[in-house]
Predict the structure.
Amino acid sequence: MANSCKTTEPNRSFIIGKGGGFTGKYEVFLVQSNGEVFKVVNEQPSSTMEVKIDKKQISEVFREFDQLNIPGVNFSYPGNMTYFVRCTENNKTHEIKWGSPNVAPPQNFIVFFDKTWSLIRKK
């Protein structure tokens, strides 16, 4: 599944998700720069669009996504419930993940996740 961290690519995307806990299940979505969001199952996006985020909101999401600088950050502290944002650049996958009770993630990770998640789940 191709998703891109690069700011110069016209069709950019990233993966966002959360899960674990008692069931071990994850809820994962592919967010594209055109505002289309697809559920990801078994590492593959579904063919049915979950939601369409409007142009102004998706621009803001990708501006904030760029500020996370995922390729330049090494933050992997999963927990019982794990939250993550993932992208691919030059065929290399970059991911930030958190949930460990022992390591607090940077506030901008939480704010970005919560804001983006609420746009996806608003339907």
